[in-house]
From TrEMBL:
Keyword Repressor appears in the UniProt entry: no
Gene Ontology CC annotations of this record: membrane
UniProt keyword Transmembrane helix, yes or no: yes
Principal localisation: membrane
Source organism, top-level taxon: Bacteria
A Pfam family the protein falls into: Band_7
Compartments in which it is found: Membrane
Name by which UniProt lists this protein: SPFH domain-containing protein
Sequence ranges assigned to domain Band in this UniProt record: 51-217
Keywords associated with the record: Membrane, Transmembrane, Transmembrane helix
Topology in membrane: Single-pass membrane protein
Originating species: Pedobacter miscanthi
Length: 285
């Protein structure tokens, strides 16, 4: 495994001045018809001086190799001169966005889902990025897809029946993003890549089960609402009976209490407007 070695080559301005002097000297030799020395000076300038010039822009680097041996990486921006025989490979240090494609996978419960992620990454160690993998950008794409598939397989899309404590892809966004970022950093460390942020950008049930899951969610919401309504209605009936008993407004036997409870529950739990009925007799006729 190659370890990055930062080098600081000499400034290129002095060498550039020497190059201008050699160019001027070669022109003078040609004008003076001293063709041999003119050709030698021009060849030195073109083949030994000019190829060594190096311009590094901000947030860029240059990986240098000499006859197959890694010499080091230049990360400082500026104008430099290096051995003209070195091979140079420019590597960007800027942050990159990977907008992953939508993947169709099965979650932990076996439900087919569609999932995609956005990954922000940058090259942290240029030597590993250049020498440890064939193509580090393609490596990032493939490993990101593999990490997203693995994440979808170990978590359910939503809570299972009667289960509320486990992490899900739908509700545990922060935890899921943290786990995805950690896994990507572990996978991409071989290529010298650092993941700055990773988040799920798309999450949905696959079209073939989307309608069924929507009905399930709607049924769950209706049951939860009905449960809340019944709990409130029972509390109101209990409070009403207690107030009537305390104030002595009316004396109710067990049969009348049962009838009153039944009527109140129908009124409070019903989903339609109540139609009042006037009873001109008694509760027993």
């Amino acid at each position: 495994m190659y370890q990055e070695k930062i080098i600081s080559p000499p400034s290129g301005y002095l060498t550039f001045a020497i190059s201008i002097v050699l160019l001027a000297a070669s022109i003078f030799c040609f004008v003076s018809e001293i063709f041999l020395w003119g050709g030698i000076l021009l060849a030195v300038d073109i083949f030994l001086i000019f190829p060594g010039f190096l311009i590094i822009n901000p947030n860029q680097s240059m990986v240098l190799t000499l006859f197959g041996k890694y010499m080091g990486t230049v990360k400082a921006d500026g104008f430099f001169w290096v051995n003209p025989l070195t091979a140079k490979r420019r590597v960007s240090l800027k942050a990159n966005n990977l907008n992953g494609q939508q993947l169709k996978v099965n979650d932990k419960l076996g439900n087919p889902i569609e999932i995609a992620a956005v990954v922000v990454w940058k090259v942290n160690e240029t030597a590993k990025a250049v020498f440890s993998v064939e193509n580090y950008m393609q490596y990032v794409n493939i490993q990101s897809e593999a990490a997203v598939r693995h994440l979808a397989n170990i978590f359910p899309y939503d809570h299972a029946e009667g289960e509320e404590t486990s992490i899900t892809l739908k509700d545990g966004a922060e935890k899921v993003s943290e786990l995805l970022e950690n896994e990507l950093n572990e996978r991409l460390s071989r290529a010298g890549i650092e993941v700055l942020e990773a988040r799920i950008s798309h999450l949905a049930y696959a079209p073939e089960i989307a309608s069924a899951m929507l009905q399930r969610q709607q049924a769950t919401a209706v049951i939860a609402a009905r449960k809340l309504i019944v709990e409130g209605a029972v509390g109101m009936v209990e409070m009403a009976l207690e107030k009537l008993s305390q104030k002595g407004i009316v004396e109710l036997d067990e049969e009348r209490k049962a009838a009153m409870v039944s009527n109140l529950l129908v009124v409070l739990c019903g989903d339609r407007h109540v139609q009042p009925v006037v009873n001109t007799g008694t509760l027993y006729n």
